[in-house]
Specification:
Blueprint (H helix, E strand, L loop, with lengths): L1 H6 L1 E2 H8 L3 H9 L7 E2 L5 E3 L1 H15 L4 H11 L7 H32 L12 H15 L8
Antiparallel strand pairs: 1-3, 2-3
């Protein structure tokens, strides 16, 4: 039993070993990515060495922009190492597609901002600012255009 207790680590040490904040570990517990920890008699959370590997896996998934639900799915797949990895490939392919869509959206936003920045190429009085004038005109145009009708 003493060996078991010796193998347990506290939340601060786990956070340090993996390079995350303590609050992040608590969040992952709340979301079901990490099992609820054991508690010492004085209430401290304690973790096993296997939790270090699991938390590192979760952190690497998050570093790749994966959603919590996707990570839950991957963790479940890791528990069945004999299964075909096609589901993992599909998940990553879907993630790549979403990233490509986000990149296209960000590129369009950048283009609009560059165009907007061109409306006021120099310093001057706020009353002459083409950016503010353009933004104000877009707001007025949105307010003046008729509301879209829905068809039933």
């Amino acid at each position: 039993m003493a060996k078991d207790r010796k193998d347990l680590i506290k939340i601060g040490e786990l956070a340090h070993l993996v390079g995350v904040q303590v609050v992040t570990i608590r969040y992952y517990e709340k979301e079901g990515l990490l099992d609820k920890p054991q508690r010492t008699p004085n209430g401290y959370r304690t973790y096993r060495r296997t939790d270090v590997d699991r938390l590192r896996f979760i952190r690497h998934c998050r570093d790749h922009g994966m959603a919590i639900e996707d990570i839950k799915f991957l963790l479940k797949l890791r528990e069945a190492p004999e299964k075909d990895c096609m589901e993992v490939n599909t998940l990553v392919d879907d993630h790549i597609k979403r990233l490509e869509e986000q990149l296209a959206s960000l590129q369009a936003l950048k283009s609009r901002l560059v165009e907007l920045r061109g409306k006021c190429p120099h310093s001057g009085a706020i009353s002459d600012c083409g950016i503010l004038r353009d933004l104000g005109g877009q707001c007025r145009a949105a307010l003046e255009s008729p509301a879209p009708t829905t068809q039933s």
